[in-house]
Amino acid sequence: MNAIGLSLIMKMGCICSKEVININGVRYIVKEHLGEGGFSTVDLVENASSRKLYALKRIKCHSVEDQKIAMQEINYYKKIKHPNIIVLIDSSFKGSADIVVNATSEAFLVLPYFSLGTLHDYLIVRSFAKNYLDIKEIYKLFSEICQGIKYLHNFSPEALAHRDLKSANVCLSQGMVPVIMDLGSCAPAKVQVCGAQDAQKLQDLAAERCSMTYRAPELFHVESYCVIDQRTDIWSLGCVMYALCYFKSPFDVVHERGDSVNLAVISGSLPFPEESPFDESVHDFIKFMLQVNPSERPFIDSVIEKLQVLRNEADAVI
């Protein structure tokens, strides 16, 4: 057999060996692995008929409780409809759904594929050359992220909180439109904590599902008797705004040094660079959201109102 024939057979073998997943009668061919988190993996897949690309999120469920959490995420996707929040194309469960020891099932979520990647990816590229975003671009991106969060916070019949907002959970669609993704941590915004057991449960959940360098201080040490509300997302928004200016959360540097993020968060001290292209009004806006005491932190409407004032001021500068 000549080299060309052997090469052709090898290529055909590679094509045939690609994983094919059937979801509600639609065949998807796995193209490549995109990433993974603590509870899921994401692959780039192609619809075998239309050849359109999608992101396939797989959630491994090792218990009935895991299945409930995955189903809750799917249900949130089905209920939530907003241009700045990702949509669910399709979903299914495969494997055992019975209460059996060591039984495993898997949830499949077909989501849009964003070729531009995430805001986190975009900021990393800009950071290499210290290529700061223009303040008007920052305000535009942040404004649209705020609109998505406002939709969640005003959701009826019950306000929702995202609880894991970060630059890596914001995709960029064509035209640089931010789209909030990953509703795996989404939950009712208001949580009444009654006792040490409730507090520990919420604190453990936050440690599992809320990224440390974007996590609100009240989720690091949950008080035994308190109310946690949607202002956890406002803290995360403050970190996102900081990242839009300086490429990463103010607490990423602390984490990279190996220092305590927890102590840095509750200290209320923000490390703004000495040399900055942004004026004091931008820093004040970030501080406005990063109030350690949640009762002093604004709600989303106040954030949007203050942002609009800043945008008007920026537009007035020739």
TrEMBL record:
Positions of the Protein kinase domain: 28-310
EC number annotated for this UniProt entry: 2.7.11.1
Pfam family, one: Pkinase
Catalytic activity, reaction form: L-seryl-[protein] + ATP = O-phospho-L-seryl-[protein] + ADP + H(+); L-threonyl-[protein] + ATP = O-phospho-L-threonyl-[protein] + ADP + H(+)
Lineage: superkingdom: Eukaryota
Sample GO molecular function, one term: ATP binding
Protein's UniProt keywords contain ATP-binding: yes
Gene3D superfamilies with a match to the protein in the record: Transferase(Phosphotransferase) domain 1 (1.10.510.10)
Keyword annotations: ATP-binding, Kinase, Nucleotide-binding, Serine/threonine-protein kinase, Transferase
Name of the protein in question: non-specific serine/threonine protein kinase
